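Per your request, structure below.
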């Protein structure tokens, strides 16, 4: 998703539904704290009353599984060009600019269309293949066990800050080749940069992101120079080798790719672990099943991805007039594909609000579909399996230590602020 303006519109209602005489106009306000606490009733309402719903700034909100899948696979829809938006915002400033941020996101796969997207994805996809990623299993297990052994004696922890954040951050840093002592710094940077996915980020937000982009770029320039002198067994050295041997990647492209991998590799997996543990802790019978039948872990991870999807929304733009279920989306109009709603569509998933770790035919859209299908899907599945299995099996009598949880104000992501638990030490 990307910015549409700097104001935070409170209520976004549909004039069409009023015309249709629907008593209560449909509301899609992703900034409403009630919506953030539980978006699913709103999704159900939209899907059943107006599955292709025109909302704020004329954007179309898509909530049906079949429509979401069709849009993601349809070449008549392109990705949103955030690079252009950031440059545009930067040009309208009286003082300063966001040039480093614009440059940094210029080669992010999520904002590229073919043929550029095909070229760049081809250059980095090998590092995320099943073979490359499965080799990392022992390393991921080791990081997981170390994090658990730090808190095991104390009988309580915050799953988010003590475990779910450092785990993927350490893993992606290890893949890229970021030195151990810098992992936390890189985590802070990617957390700030994830605000780029917020459709209503403020100018101050952009200033902060540009500052972070400058720090990230300066940091990576030094690291690239070091790896050029002494290559290591890491993805950064592999990308440099592509640059030098085949002259296919520029330094700016390498930095842009690393930044995207850090961002996509970290925040999403935090949410998979956090949302997954919340779902299990809130469904004691499912928790009991996974404890006694650890072989269910793969299907449990798929159900977590469906039930409370880490990325809720992605954006596409029509490159020509497209008719969807009788509704014409005009050339240039934006479409919000609500993955979180598609994954609760009763037409695709029987009893969609039921959390069932044995669910069959779970073809969810948590990793999207089409040419932008998540590059890190294999990696994050392994991380999720190892992380959730370790928490459930290694910490006895796990329980939530408070009744209510709070969600972060991130529109595209479904992110918990904290998940405090207690267990027998
Ligand atoms: C639970 C964890 C994750 C979820 C739910 C997730 C979800 C997604 C989704 C929905 C997209 C498509 C976005 C769009 O079409 O607009 C995507 C793309 C992507 N993801 Fe993930 N992701 C996860 C973890 C990861 C990890 C661990 C990495 C890498 C380290 C990663 C790397 C990427 C990349 C590079 C893309 C862009 C692919 C492209 O545009 O061709 N993701 N992810």
């Amino acid at each position: 998703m990307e910015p549409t303006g700097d104001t935070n519109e409170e209520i976004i209602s549909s004039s069409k539904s009023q015309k249709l005489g629907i008593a209560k106009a449909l509301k899609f306000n992703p900034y409403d704290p009630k919506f953030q606490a539980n978006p699913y009733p709103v999704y159900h309402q939209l899907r059943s009353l107006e599955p292709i719903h025109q909302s704020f700034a004329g954007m179309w909100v898509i909530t049906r599984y079949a429509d979401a899948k069709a849009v993601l696979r349809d070449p008549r829809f392109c990705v949103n060009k955030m690079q252009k938006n950031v440059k545009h915002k930067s040009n309208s400033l009286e003082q300063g600019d966001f040039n480093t941020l614009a440059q940094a996101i210029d080669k992010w796969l999520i904002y590229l269309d073919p043929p550029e997207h095909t070229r760049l994805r081809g250059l980095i996809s090998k590092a995320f293949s099943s073979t490359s990623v499965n080799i990392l299993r022992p390393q991921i297990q080791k990081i997981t066990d170390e994090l658990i052994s730090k808190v095991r004696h104390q009988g309580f922890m915050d799953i988010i800050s003590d475990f779910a954040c450092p785990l993927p951050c350490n893993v992606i840093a290890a893949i890229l080749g970021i030195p151990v002592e810098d992992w936390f710094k890189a985590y802070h940077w990617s957390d700030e940069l994830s605000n780029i996915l917020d459709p209503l980020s403020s100018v101050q937000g952009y200033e902060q992101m540009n500052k972070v982009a400058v720090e990230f770029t300066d940091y990576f320039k030094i690291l690239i120079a070091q790896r050029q002198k002494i290559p290591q067994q890491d993805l950064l050295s592999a990308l440099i080798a592509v640059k030098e041997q085949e002259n296919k990647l520029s330094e700016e492209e390498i930095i842009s790719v690393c930044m995207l991998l850090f961002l996509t590799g970290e925040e999403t997996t935090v949410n998979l672990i956090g949302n997954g543990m919340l779902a299990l802790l809130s469904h004691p019978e499912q928790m009991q099943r996974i404890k006694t039948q650890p072989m269910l872990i793969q299907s449990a991870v798929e159900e977590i991805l469906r039930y409370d999807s880490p990325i809720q929304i992605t954006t596409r733009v029509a490159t020509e007039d497209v008719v969807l279920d009788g509704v014409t989306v005009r050339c240039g109009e934006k479409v919000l594909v609500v993955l979180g709603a598609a994954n609760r569509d009763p037409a695709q998933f029987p009893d969609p609000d039921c959390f069932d770790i044995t669910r069959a035919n779970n073809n969810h859209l948590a990793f999207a579909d089409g040419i932008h299908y998540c590059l890190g899907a294999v990696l994050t599945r392994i991380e999720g399996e190892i992380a959730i299995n370790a928490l459930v099996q290694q910490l006895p009598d796990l329980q939530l230590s408070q009744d209510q949880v709070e969600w972060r104000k991130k529109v595209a992501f479904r992110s918990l602020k904290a998940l405090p638990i207690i267990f027998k030490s």
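The chain has 19 helices and ten strands.

Regards,
D.
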